[in-house]
Design goal:
globular; 488 residues; 21 helices; DNA Cyclobutane Dipyrimidine Photolyase, subunit A, domain 3; mainly alpha; Rossmann fold; binds flavin-adenine dinucleotide; single chain; Serine Threonine Protein Phosphatase 5, Tetratricopeptide repeat
Length: 488
C-alpha cells in the first residue's frame, strides 16, 4: 500500500489554506485522512458553553461534509487524543500511517497535550507540525533575539509585527493564501471542484470499528441550546468576510457603536480556524496599508494584531490563565458580593448599557467589543468583583469565547494585564452609553422594558431599575483599592 497520512484537526477546522493538512496532502499525494478527538472530559470543563460547543460541532459537520465531497474523510472519535491514537494505531497495525500532521496551538493546556502526543507517537510515525492559527508565532517576534524577551506593551509589539509582515518569509505565508481564496470563491459560486483527496477511512478499517460520535454529540447537545447559532464552517466565514469587505472602509467610524453593525463578526470563525488572519490579510490586502494612517483597513489590521498580541502573552506568560499579569495586583482584596454578581449576570444592575450588554450575551452568545469593555469595567471597578468571575461567565456564554483574547480583555479592563487600562481611568457607564449609543437603539434592542422611553430619557437612571451601586462612590473605592496594592 502507498504511504498515507493522518491530519489531526483541532482548531483549524477548514481545508482552505490549512498549512499542516496541505503538507500532509503533498507528502501522500492526496492520501490524507482527517481525525478529531472529542474528549468527553471537555464537557465538564469550568469554561464550557453549550452554544459554543454547538457551533463547534456544526463546524466539524460542515468540514466532514466538505472533506467527503473532495474525496476525503474525517472521523470524530469519542476518546482523549493520547488514548485515541493508541487505540487507532492498534487497529491500523500493520498499515500504520507514514505521517501525522497538526497545526500548532499556543494555550498552556494544548502545548502540554501536544508535547505528550509527540513523545508517545514519534517512534511510530513521522510527526509534522505547522503554524496556522497565527500569522507570526511567539518565537518569531522577540524584543531582542539575544535576551529572548517579549513585548508586554501593544504599540511597540504592533509596530514590530507590521514590520515583520513585510518580510519575505511572512509575505510568502500571506501571498500563498490566494489559493485558499480561489478555492473558497469557487465553492461560494457553487462551481464543481474535482475531488483532490484519495482515501477514506473505510479503505483501512472495517465499518464496525468506524464509530463516529459526531452526530450523537450534536443530538445530545441540541437540547441545551436556547437560541439559534450562526451558520458554521469555512464557507460561511468566507461569505461573512466578503460582506465585511463592503464595510471595512467605514470601520474606523462605525466600530465603536454597538447598534451600527460596523464590525466584521468574524471572531467566531477565527476561534475555531474556519477562517484565519492570514486569509483575511490577503483578502483585504492589509499588507499594504499605511500603518501610521487611521483608516478602516489599518484599524482592522490592528485588531487582528491585538488577537496575536494576547496569544503571545499567554504563550510567554502561561500563568496569566489563573492570575494577574502585574504581580502587584495578584492578591487584590475584591469585595466579591454574590448578590451584585448575580445582578450583573442577569442584566439587572440598574445601568441600562451594562444590562443591555449582559442580556445580549445571554440571548445571542455575543457582545459588542465596546460593551464588553463597559461591562467588564463595571464588574471590576464598580462592583469590585474579581475579574476571574467575569472571565468565567463570559466563557460560559460567548460563542467566540477564547482563552487568550478573553483573558487579555478582562485583564485589560481590570487594569491587571500586560498593557492595561490605567486603574484610575474608570469608565462611567452613563457617559459611555451617551457617547456610543446616543439614541439608545442598542439599549432598547435588549431591554424591552425601556422600549417606549424617549431618547432624552433613555440614559437617565430614574426611568429604570434602581441602580445597585452609585458609580462615583464605587469609583473612589476602586481607586483606593488599587492604590493600596500599588504601594506594597
Ligand atoms: C472583556 C473582554 C472579553 C473579550 N473576550 C473575547 C473572546 O473571548 N474572544 C474573542 O475573540 N475576543 C474577545 N474580546 C475581543 C473583542 O471584543 C472581540 O474579538 C470582538 O468583539 C469580536 O467581534 P468582531 O469579530 O466583529 O470584531 P472586529 O471588530 O471585526 O475585529 C476583528 C477581529 O480582531 C480580533 N479582535 C478585535 N478586538 C480584539 C481584542 N480587543 N482582543 C483580541 N482580539 C481582538 C478578533 O479576532 C476579531 O474578530 C474580548 C474583549 C473584552 C474587552
Amino acid at each position: 500500500m502507498q504511504p498515507y497520512g493522518i491530519h489531526w484537526f483541532r482548531r483549524d477546522l477548514r481545508i482552505a489554506g490549512n498549512s499542516a493538512l496541505k503538507w500532509n496532502w503533498r507528502k501522500t499525494q492526496g492520501k490524507t485522512l482527517g481525525i478529531f478527538f472529542l474528549d468527553s472530559k471537555f464537557l465538564a470543563r469550568p469554561d464550557f458553553s453549550h452554544h459554543r460547543f454547538g457551533f463547534f460541532l456544526q463546524t466539524l459537520k460542515t468540514l466532514k461534509n466538505e472533506l467527503k465531497e473532495m474525496g476525503g474523510d474525517l472521523i470524530v472519535l469519542d476518546r482523549p487524543p493520547k488514548e485515541g491514537f493508541e487505540w487507532l494505531f492498534s487497529k491500523l497495525r500493520p498499515k500504520l500511517p507514514a505521517y501525522l500532521s497538526f497545526n500548532r496551538d499556543y494555550e498552556p493546556f494544548a502545548r502540554e497535550r501536544d508535547a505528550l502526543i509527540q513523545q508517545s507517537l514519534s517512534d511510530q510515525v513521522q510527526i509534522h507540525t505547522e503554524r496556522d492559527h497565527l500569522v507570526i508565532e511567539p518565537h518569531e517576534l522577540r524584543k531582542e533575539i539575544s535576551d529572548n524577551s517579549f513585548y508586554q506593551v501593544y504599540t511597540p509589539f504592533s509596530k514590530k509585527w507590521f514590520s515583520l509582515l513585510q518580510s519575505e518569509i511572512i509575505q510568502e505565508r500571506i501571498q500563498i493564501q490566494q489559493e485558499a481564496i480561489q478555492y473558497l470563491e469557487k465553492r461560494a459560486q457553487g462551481q464543481i471542484i474535482p475531488p483532490f483527496f484519495q482515501i477514506t477511512w473505510s479503505q483501512l478499517l472495517p465499518n464496525d470499528l468506524l464509530q463516529d460520535s459526531l452526530d450523537a454529540y450534536i443530538h445530545q447537545n441540541k437540547y441545551d441550546l436556547t437560541f439559534e447559532i450562526p451558520q458554521a464552517g469555512s464557507l460561511a466565514a468566507y461569505q461573512k468576510a466578503k460582506s465585511f469587505l463592503l464595510k471595512v472602509d467605514r470601520y474606523l467610524e462605525t466600530r465603536d457603536y454597538p447598534y451600527a453593525q460596523g464590525n466584521s463578526q468574524l471572531s467566531v470563525y477565527l476561534k475555531n480556524g474556519s477562517m484565519t488572519p492570514a486569509i483575511l490579510i490577503k483578502l483585504f490586502e492589509l499588507s499594504s496599508v499605511d500603518f501610521k494612517q487611521k483608516t478602516g483597513r489599518s484599524q482592522f489590521l490592528k485588531e487582528l494584531i491585538w488577537r496575536e498580541f494576547y496569544y503571545h502573552i499567554i504563550y510567554n506568560r502561561p500563568r496569566v490563565e489563573n492570575e494577574s499579569f502585574l504581580p502587584q495586583y495578584k492578591n487584590l482584596r475584591w469585595e466579591n458580593r454574590e448578590d451584585w454578581f448575580q445582578a450583573w449576570q442577569e442584566g439587572k444592575t440598574g445601568y441600562p448599557i451594562v444590562d443591555a450588554g449582559m442580556r445580549e450575551l445571554k440571548t445571542t452568545g455575543l457582545m459588542h467589543n465596546r460593551v464588553r469593555m463597559i461591562v467588564a469595567s463595571f464588574l471590576t471597578k464598580d462592583l469590585l468583583i474579581d475579574w476571574r468571575w467575569g472571565e468565567k461567565h463570559f466563557m460560559n456564554h460567548l460563542l467566540d469565547g477564547d482563552l487568550a483574547a478573553n483573558n487579555g480583555g478582562w485583564q485589560w479592563a481590570a487594569s491587571t494585564g500586560s498593557d492595561p487600562q490605567p486603574y484610575f481611568r474608570i469608565f462611567n457607564p452613563t457617559l459611555q452609553a451617551e457617547k456610543f449609543d446616543p439614541q439608545g437603539h442598542y439599549i432598547r434592542q435588549f431591554l424591552p422594558e425601556l422600549e417606549t422611553v424617549s431618547t432624552e430619557g433613555i440614559h437617565s437612571l430614574t426611568n429604570y431599575l434602581p441602580p445597585i451601586v452609585d458609580h462615583s462612590t464605587q469609583k473612589q473605592k476602586a481607586i483606593a483599592l488599587y492604590q493600596s496594592h500599588k504601594k506594597r
